Amino acid sequence: MTVVFTQVNASGALQIAGESLDTGWFLYLAAILFVIGAVGVMVRRNPLVILICIELMLNAVNLTLVTFSRQLQNLDGQLFALMALTVAAAEAVVGLGILVDIFRLREVEDVDELSELRG
Amino acid sequence: MNWLPLTILLLPAVGAALLAGRGWRWPRMLTVIVGPGVVWLSFLVVLYGYATDVNVDQSYWTWIKVDGFTLPFNLLLDHLSLFMCLMITGVGGLIVTYSVGYMGHEDDPSYARFFCYMDVFVTSMLLLVLAGNFIILIVGWAMVGLSSYLLIGFYYWRLSAVVAARKAFVMNVIGDIGMILGTFVIFFQFHATTYSDVFHQLGCSGDRLCLGTPDSPTLELAAFLFLVGAVAKSAQLPLHTWLPDAMEGPTPVSALIHAATMVTAGVYLVGRLHPLYDVAPYAHHAVAIIGALTALVAATIAIVQTDIKRVLAYSTMSQIGYMFLAVGVGAYAAAFFHLLAHAFFKALLFMSAGNVIHAMDDEQDMRRFGGLWRQLRGTSISFLIGSLALVGVIPLIGYFSKEFILGAVFSNPDPLSIWLWVVGFATAILTGFYTGRMWWIAFWGKPSPTRPVAVPQEAPAVMLWPVLVLAALSVAGGALQSKTAIGFGTTLVEDYLRPVVGAIAWPANPFDVLLALATMVLALVAFGWAYLMYVPRAERRAAFLDSLAEVAMASPHPWSSRVPWAQTLLEHKYYFDEIYDWAFVRPLDRLARWGDRGDRRVVDGSLTGVAGWVQGGGRELGLLESGYFRSYILVFVGGAVVAGLLVLWRASTA
């Protein structure tokens, strides 16, 4: 059997393995991922975990981009997602670099310790 | 190009620069050579100029050139400025040499500082008299004021000296303002600043007097403004109060600046600007009236002073009053002869007084001297010569110069002149009296019981010789101009100055000589009368004088016990200081305090208020910057959520 993994029908809903899957689900998933990321950034104090959470939020956004790209039959969204991935990689490099540098300077396990610029 | 005027000017300037730059670490010997040396060198150049009869108005370079206005740097060395230069460098050289001994107690840096200031002063004074235009004149005028300030405040650790220096400076600046405004008026009228241009446009120069030219309010205004400058610099009424206080400076300073040279700058100014004053009769009369009044007022105050230098200071004011009187009536040659004579005998008096003060451990109250005649013979003789020259006794220079002035005033056809002569005549007698008082109290009788030094030492040679040279000049100087006071002999000063200031325009009165002799006799009587009043009876040596006096006026005793109110009035110097204090100093002080409060409360207050407000706001806002990453993200996410909700709300309502 030939598996047509994904297809878009006339109404715009995704077809996966013959079953149609409403776009809404993908958006729900993206929203959940994003909220997990955002809450993670807000409540976690380990700088590495915060970085990971930021990546999570970025990827949630990427997911919505790809979803809409599929639904609207327009490749711009996918292109944009690829672009975002590239930028995210660069950003992760810079972020990790800063983190390593701070670690060298002093052993920080909690971003709250980095509050010298408070008013 | 004639370099002579510039050389005269630059020699002391170079000396001052060397002393200012390196003097404080020089060995004392070098300071002693450079300080007086440059003045003497300058004197030699002036002598050379006199010998070769230099008479130039030399422009060296263009100083200022702005859109149609050109100001040259030109120096004028004519007979009048050469006469002044001879006096400044000659008498100045003697006084600076004298300072070598007088300032000997100072430590090396102060010693060099003193000679540096003295050379600065000589430079400034030479600039003043050599100036060929009004602008350079103002520069010189202000610079002598500055050097006077520096030298009065030489003992800067003494509050009284600093206050006196400030007072002199403020008074002099009032005069400087008059000079500057006067120059503005001249420029406004003639569009010229050099003497030659201005005098040419006034239609008279040199010996051509311009009497009878129509009067002009503008010229009167200019003449009055220059008179303000002259009055302030020469310590005439009503801007005279700084001079007695200026005696806080070292004695050579009093001799050079506050007797011989700077204070006579006003006389020089009126003489130099005589083409202006000749066409401004009101201002010209004002000069004469101010001079006569100052002569009288200062002479009366001198009667009650007890500080020997202050007596000499009031006497200086009085004698400069005579010079103002002379230039005021137009007898310029008489004024300048008296200026020279006064430089001789007043420098002599100050330096002799300096020797006495030195011998008395810096005591200046002459009531605590007494009996110096036997102990300081050289100084006493020179002081006596100076005193008699001041009184105007016949073979001495003071007789010839003072009687030249009084004779010229007496014979002047102007109806006012006779009254001015009466004032001058009265002043001459008062001069005899206060000079006698000073002489008898300080030098005669028995030593005062409170005298600081029992056996005083005569001054060293370096302080005695300049005094003796001046004494010789005071004795012999009368030969320069004897005809006017005794009816025969020379008229050298008058002839020499005639090309610049002209001859006296009215014929001499045949009574002049008789009046002169009468004035001298009366002044001498006053001098002797002071002996009866101020030397205690037990210490008098000529008993026959007592009997004479008792016949004449029934037991003379100090006049002050009969008129105590006059004594009080004079001791307060006619309350000039008190009036100025009440009229100017205190209101200004109150204004300043008020302004200070306003500044603090309103100007500063509003700025501080705004700053405080911003600071406070910043502090409150700063609390938001917790430095916690979490809180920033919370705000950010919260903002994003609100923004998203807004978008949704709009979408649902649209």
Explain what you see.
The complex is a heterodimer of chains A (119) and B (654). Chain A has three helices and three strands; from the N terminus they run βββααα. Chain A is mainly alpha-helical and 119 residues long. A three-stranded antiparallel sheet of chain A has the order 1-2-3. In chain A, helix 1 (23-43) runs antiparallel to helix 2 and helix 2 (47-72) runs antiparallel to helix 3 (76-105). The longest helix of chain A is centred in the last third of the chain and has 30 residues, at 76-105. The radius of gyration of chain A is 19 Å and the shape is elongated. In chain A, 13% of the residues are buried. The mean pLDDT of chain A is 83. Chain B is mostly helical and 654 residues long. Helix content of chain B is 71%, strand content 3%. Chain B is built from 26 helices and two strands. A two-stranded antiparallel sheet of chain B has the order 1-2. In chain B, helix 2 (28-51) packs antiparallel against helix 3. The longest helix of chain B has 47 residues, at 576-622. Chain B is globular, with a radius of gyration of 31 Å. The interface between A and B is medium-sized, with 14 and 14 residues.
Short description:
The complex is a heterodimer of chains A (119) and B (654). Chain A is mainly alpha-helical and 119 residues long. Chain A is 65% helix and 8% strand.
SS element count, helices of chain A: 3
Strand count, sense and barrel status of the largest sheet of chain B are: 2 strands, antiparallel
The total count of strands of chain B amounts to 2
Form type of chain B: globular
Q: SS-based structural class of chain B? A: mainly alpha
Q: Cα-atom Rg of chain A, whole angstroms?
A: 19 Å
Terminal Cα span of chain A: 66 Å
Strand content of chain A: 5-15%
Approximate strand percentage of chain B: under 5%
How do the strands of the widest beta sheet of chain A line up side by side? 1-2-3
* Oligomer kind: heterodimer
Portion in helices of chain B:
over 70%
Spatial arrangement of strands, main beta sheet of chain B: 1-2
The total beta strand count of chain A reads 3
